[in-house]
Design brief:
The protein is α/β, with parallel strands linked by helices. It has 17 helices and 20 strands. The strands form 4 sheets. It has a 9-stranded mixed sheet with strand order 3-4-5-2-1-8-9-13-14, with helices on both faces. A 6-stranded parallel sheet has the order 17-16-15-18-19-20, sandwiched between helices. It has a 3-stranded antiparallel sheet with strand order 10-12-11. The longest helix has 18 residues. The termini are close together. The model has no long low-confidence stretch (mean pLDDT 97). It binds adenosine-5'-diphosphate.
């Protein structure tokens, strides 16, 4: 069984969120069961000189315009990744957009990527292409349109990002006008790339069982709930995992001090060093941390509304987040006003994020919706207790009662009252050392690997083939 996994970002090459982590850890776990290779765009900020040029090159015709494509490759952690090199993909500074917004030609950029993936799939004789999110969503359509003997699995990591473009986009990416219909790509007078993944794939997954149900409702369906109900027979929710070798407090080079559940005193060394690094005093106070894209989904409106009450508690708070400039402007005055709040917003910083996971006592995750969420798993692995809103994958992975992995503090709804209530429960728990340490040890010994879920994906792959 030959699988080609495609995504717009894959760790460690390019990452803006959980998709990149999954692109690495799922593929690595699947490698134990199937022949799998991955493919992603070669962006301008990536070190091309570190990749090997292959002899695979072709041109792609999108709406009568020809684009030259060359494939590069690299082996990392036992996985071969191909990189699609084309001026359109590498010309930009970022993956998807800059401070002014999304790049205007993202439709052509990612249609080109999809066309290149389909070409590569034929060259390497892939049996299945596993495509992810809207950037790869044209793959199932192109495979079906060309009547190829390739099966496609499409995974939705976040339904809110759909790749919506003006009607003339169809012609720009070389698709026939017949796709401009409600049961194809048309979406309220525009063109919706994600619909292609949902409609034309042979199997459909999303990243947690609860999110699979939620996206069929008006509240979480982002306008696609009807379509998802229609295709629910081929939809499965499979919970993500993490690569426990990338996120391992026992040998993480980014940490000030490595530790395990048996040497928790060393976790405290990390807290000491981080507080010094960011200029926070009061080591005895509980340290709350949050590491997130700065977007509405992650509960920033709720957080901002609750900040005065939250920061008036005897706590410290470190927030590592970047994204929406408006939120940045709203949060910065709080960092000026409160000495117990540090807002780190100077871009994406993987090593710093690891140090923060290791230093925190509690990780805050008041997401309004959360397809799966990896932060809570990473935090638990580093002995930082998650505080989550009971939604999507958070509902499937964090429990305040019972004996299931993992233990945390759960907000039943996303309101200021429940957020402050959760913070107060955390402060009380912090005062009970024995209970807190029992919880931390339990969490650190949970299995967050992708092994179980990779088996479910593998089963799905097998079902697709004759
Ligand atoms: P999403 O994919 O919605 O962003 P996830 O919880 O699935 O959320 O994954 C987020 C990943 O991105 C985690 O690995 C988290 O540590 C990381 N992350 C988010 N923001 C930053 C940042 N500013 N710096 C470093 N890592 C970050």
């Amino acid at each position: 069984m030959q699988i080609l996994f495609c995504a717009s970002e894959i760790y460690p090459y390019a990452k803006s969120g959980g998709l990149a982590d999954v692109g690495h850890s799922l593929v690595k776990a699947l490698g134990k069961h199937a022949e799998i290779q991955s493919v992603m765009p070669l962006y301008g900020f990536m070190p091309k000189e570190e990749f090997e040029k292959t002899d695979i090159a072709f041109s792609v015709n999108l709406g009568g315009v020809f684009y030259e494509v060359t494939l590069y490759e690299k082996l990392h952690d036992g996985i071969k990744t191909y990189f699609v090199d084309a001026p359109l993909l590498s010309a930009t500074e970022e993956m998807y957009g800059d401070t002014k917004g999304d790049y205007a030609n993202n439709d052509i950029r990612f249609a080109l990527f999809c066309a290149a993936v389909v070409e590569l799939a034929q060259i390497i004789h892939a049996d299945i292409v596993h495509a992810n999110d809207w950037h790869s969503a044209l793959v199932p359509l192109l495979v079906r349109r060309a009547k190829l003997k390739i099966k496609t699995l499409f995974s939705i990591h976040n339904l809110a990002y759909q790749g919506i473009f003006e009607r003339d986009s169809l012609a720009r990416v070389g698709l026939e006008e017949s796709y401009f219909q409600m049961d194809a790509l048309e979406f309220y007078g525009k063109v919706n790339f994600l619909k292609a993944g949902i409609i034309y794939s042979d199997a459909l997954t999303t990243v947690s069982p609860t999110y699979a149900k939620e996206i069929q409702t008006k509240e979480f369906g982002c306008g696609l709930e009807g379509l998802l109900q229609l295709y629910k027979a081929k939809l499965t929710g499979i919970l993500n995992g993490i690569d426990e070798t990338v996120f391992n407090p026992q040998n993480d080079a980014a940490l000030y001090s490595c530790y395990s559940s048996d040497t928790l005193a060393k976790k405290y060394e990390n807290k000491k060093a981080l507080q010094k690094e960011v200029g926070l005093s009061g080591l005895k106070k509980p340290l709350f941390v949050m590491i997130s894209r700065l977007v509405h989904q992650k509960g920033f409106d709720l957080l901002i509304k609750s900040l005065d009450a939250f920061l008036s508690e005897d706590v410290n708070f470190v927030l590592l987040a970047n994204g929406d400039e408006e939120y940045k402007k709203m949060l910065l005055p709080y960092a000026k006003k409160y000495k117990n709040f540090k807002f780190l917003c100077n871009g994406y910083d993987e090593a710093l994020s690891h140090r923060i996971y290791a230093s925190g006592d509690f990780l805050l995750m008041p997401s309004l919706y959360e397809p799966c969420g990896l932060n809570q798993m990473i935090a638990a692995r580093y002995g930082t207790i998650p505080i989550v809103h009971r939604v999507g994958g958070l509902k499937d992975s964090v429990y305040e009662r019972g004996n299931k992995c993992m233990h945390g503090i759960v907000m039943r709804e996303a309101t200021k009252k429940t957020l402050i209530g959760a913070v107060k429960r955390a402060v009380t728990l912090y005062g009970n050392n024995a209970k807190k340490e029992e919880m931390i040890s339990f969490n650190m010994n949970c299995d967050f690997s992708f092994d179980k879920s990779a088996l479910l994906y593998h089963k799905l792959y097998k079902r697709l083939l004759p």
